[in-house]
Amino acid sequence: MSYKQIIDSKLSQYCSKQRLYIESFNEAFCYSLLNGGKRLRALLMLTIIELKRQVSEDDYKIAMGLEMLHAYSLIHDDLPAMDNALLRRNLPTNHIVFGEDLAILAGDGLNTNAFYMISSAKISPEKIVKIIKTLSEKTGIYGMVLGQAADILSSKNKLNKPQKWLVNFIHKNKTARFLQSCCEIGAILSDQDERPFSKFGLYLGMSYQIIDDYLDIVSDKKVLGKDKKDIDNNTLTYPKVYGIQKSLDLANKLKGLAIDALKNIQGHEKLIELAEFIVKRAS
To answer: Which domain holds residue 95?
Structure first.
């Protein structure tokens, strides 16, 4: 099985064993976690580990935690107070199915449970602390949450910053730094130098977001699997600031920088394939 299939299976098994006493909350917690997705964050981490050794059950446990954290971010991103999205992966968003109140709590549960999963892995305490530090830094107030705050405020024209600076700041923090941390975690778990993987993840994350902005303009809603909300929400995007062609040029340039960061890493072909997929994907 592919890593994606393994992670999908393990998350499904995990949810099937949960008995959270309140059935509707149990369903809301698992709904967005199990409704598909690329599993890119887990895939990056596991592929980096594979460069040095076989992937272990504890690695999978941490990878599941990364996907829980990602699911939380999507639930909250879709909320009426944020993007007000009705569709995610061609299914109704969590708050449409379960209500805004349970969706918020499901996101909160996934966020905190991600760190429970990581701390439950049977690896050295030093590694657990290091993993939690990079992940909480890059998905919290110094990363993803900060980027989301800037995104919301910029859409309401409440940030007096140059647009080119602002769009890069938003997407570096909102998207790229989470992917960067997943790459760093893979290196931590496999005792590799984090620096080249950190650069790879950051550049890859920036490229990913540019393509996401591009697809919101040109892709069919059914292919994209979600509402096209950037224009409606006055979201600051790369095509809005740079234009479509320059945005694509930037995505390719960043992909090249990501690949170049791995030039001294042996056996990095699968990571290069992932970088190519990021730029060529349709959804």
So the answer is: 3-280
Q: Which amino acid is at 168?
A: N
Distance CA 140, CA 215 (A): 26
Instruction: State the DSSP code for 87.
Output: E
Instruction: Please check whether residue 118 is in contact with residue 132, taking contact to mean a CB–CB distance below 8 angstroms.
Output: yes
Token pair for 254: 């960043």
Asked whether the beta carbons of 278 and 208 are under 8 A apart, the reply is yes
Q: What is the DSSP string of 95-135?
A: HHHH-HHHHHHHHHHHHHHHHHHHHHSSS-HHHHHHHHHHH
- pLDDT for residue 280 is more than 90: no
Strands 91-92 and 87-88: what pairing? antiparallel
Report the candidate in 42, 68, 45 with the shortest Cα–Cα distance to residue 190: 45
CA distance 271 to 42: 13
For residue 205, the one-letter residue type is G
**What are the φ and ψ backbone dihedral angles of 205, each rounded to 5 degrees?**
-65, -40
**How many H-runs (helices) and E-runs (strands) does the chain carry?**
15, 2
Residue 57 pLDDT: 97
Q: Would you call 140 helix, strand, or coil by DSSP?
A: coil
Structural domains counted in the chain: 1
What single DSSP character describes residue 88? E
Which H or E run contains 54? none
Asked if 51 and 190 touch (Cβ cutoff 8 Å), the reply is: yes
210-242: pLDDT as tens digits: 999 999 888 776 666 676 677 778 899 999 999
- pTM of the complete model: 0.95
Under DSSP, the state recorded for 226 is B
